[in-house]
Amino acid sequence: LHCFEDTGAIVAALTTSIPEAPGSGRTWDYRYCWLRDAYYALSAFRLLGHFEEREQFVRYLINVASSTPDLDLAPLYRIDAESDLEEHILDHWPGFNGEGPVRVGNAAARQRQHDVFGEMVLALSPVFLDERFSAERSPATLDLLQRLARKAVAVAGTPDAGIWELRSGPRIQTFSSVMCWAA
Q1: CA-to-CA distance for 173 and 179, rounded, in angstroms?
Q2: Angle at CA 81, nearest 5°, toward 78 and 84?
Q3: How far apart are CA 16 and CA 10, in angstroms?
């Protein structure tokens, strides 16, 4: 699996520029930690009884959130919790089976995807809802959890890019609204 032990980041994939479908041109760089995808991987770990990854990811989430005091979160981050992922196309590379373009970086890091607040709250809430993780409780983590929930309330039902990261502009997204409600 794609857990980076040093920071707790869970990387979506170790690949870039593999086309979603032949001729689609949708060849994204997935070598980053998507908060949403990492939360769902974490949920699978929990079901399997693996908690070390969860502890490390919680630390990663706290680092991500502490770097943006207003909680203006990106949907994805580098493994060191930074979000500068300027997207570049490498024109001189043909791509997988000639299906370019080859991309480095991902412009989705500049998008707003409001569902991340729900996934972050769901990832952090076991610290306070499950006695097995009570040693991780702190006033700072509780404050973060409350701020994330307030932010989710503030952005619920407002336009965003949505989970499919379409570059056609923000719209009100059902999944984003549901995840804000979950927060």
Answers
A1: 10
A2: 55
A3: 16
Cβ of 76: how many Cβ atoms within 10 Å? 26
Core vs surface per residue 7-40: b (16+ CB within 10 A) or e: bbbbbbeeebbbbeeeeeeebbbbbbbbbbbbbe
- Tens-of-pLDDT digits for all 183 residues of the chain? 689 999 999 999 999 999 989 999 899 999 999 999 999 998 898 888 888 888 889 889 989 988 888 999 999 999 999 988 999 999 999 999 999 999 999 999 999 999 999 999 999 999 999 898 888 899 988 999 999 999 999 999 999 999 987 788 899 999 999 999 999
Q: What DSSP character marks residue 135?
A: G
